[in-house]
Input
Amino acid sequence: MTPERRRLAELTGDLSAAGGVRLVTLADGVERGVRALEFRTGSGLAFDVLVDRCMDIGPAEHAGRSFGWRSPTGFRHPGLHENNDEDGLSWLRSFSGLIVTAGLDHTLFGGDVPADGYRYPPRESVRHGLHGRAGNLPARLSGYGERWDGERCMPESPPR
Output
C-alpha cells in the first residue's frame, strides 16, 4: 500500500468512504426490484447504472447538482413495460435517466417492417415500437467492485 493510500485509509477508516461502487435494489412503486450499481468518485461525481435497464445510466450528479433527465415516472421496472402498447409509444413511459439505450433491433418511430431477416416464413412483417426494446432488457452481473491501480481507485462492473 502506498503512503498516500495508507493515509487515506487512516482518515476514512474504510477506503469505500472515498469512492466506490455498491449494488442496491430500488424498492418503491414502479421502480420496485430494479437493481442499480451506485458509483461514487472522490471528485464529487456520482451516478447509478441501472442493471435491469440495459446498464443505462440513471440518476447522475456532480458536487450535489443533478444532471440528466429525471422523469416523473421514475426508473420503471422492465417487467412493467409492454413494447407494443400505445401503438409502440410506450417507450416514453420508461424514458428516464442520463443515458437510455435505444435501437439494436429498431430506431426512431415504430412501424411494420419486413421480417425477412428473422428467417421465419409464416411471418411477413414485424411491428416495432419507438426506439426498440433494448432499453428494457436486464443485464446479468458477473461482478462489480473497485480495483486499485497505484493511487487511483477504478470502479468496475463487468456485465455479462
The mean pLDDT is 84. Residues 109 and 130 are 5 Å apart (CA to CA).
